[in-house]
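Anyone up for a design puzzle?
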């Protein structure tokens, strides 16, 4: 844990620190990434987990349009740029260690590339896995494929 986050443990409620100081203290992994959990701001529904680097986090904070780092594409991924299913940032918070982000978002349509509202639809129950939701939109239609 960085000294910054250790000092924050004893910080009083509503005390403030410069954003740059906190961004400098984030514990990005060896690839320069931090996991970001997206949660629907009004219902608490967990929608997805993706990765952010400092650039995507700074863009998200500056524009309120959520931007992630796509590991498969090796570039910034502005949520909804191909599907139209955008995430508008309502708030962002770091965990106590500075190594995980929680994004409170306003999700437009499904968050999952499968067309489902949430990426967390495979429920593990005893000796089975159950599919807990159906797609809201056919993934082929979502991404303009025939």
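Challenge accepted. My sequence:
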């Amino acid at each position: 844990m960085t000294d910054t986050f250790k000092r924050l443990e004893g910080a009083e409620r509503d005390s403030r620190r410069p954003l740059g100081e906190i961004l400098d203290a984030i514990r990005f992994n060896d690839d320069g990434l931090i996991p970001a959990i997206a949660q629907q701001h009004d219902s608490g529904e967990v929608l997805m987990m993706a990765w952010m680097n400092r650039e995507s986090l700074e863009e998200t904070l500056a524009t309120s349009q959520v931007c992630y780092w796509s590991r498969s594409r090796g570039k910034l991924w502005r949520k909804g740029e191909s599907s139209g299913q955008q995430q508008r940032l309502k708030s962002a918070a770091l965990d106590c260690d500075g190594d995980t982000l929680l994004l409170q978002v306003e999700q437009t349509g499904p968050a999952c590339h499968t067309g489902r509202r949430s990426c967390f639809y495979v429920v593990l129950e005893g000796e089975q896995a159950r599919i807990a939701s159906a797609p809201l939109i056919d993934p082929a239609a979502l991404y303009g494929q025939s």
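A detail worth pointing out: The mean pLDDT is 93.
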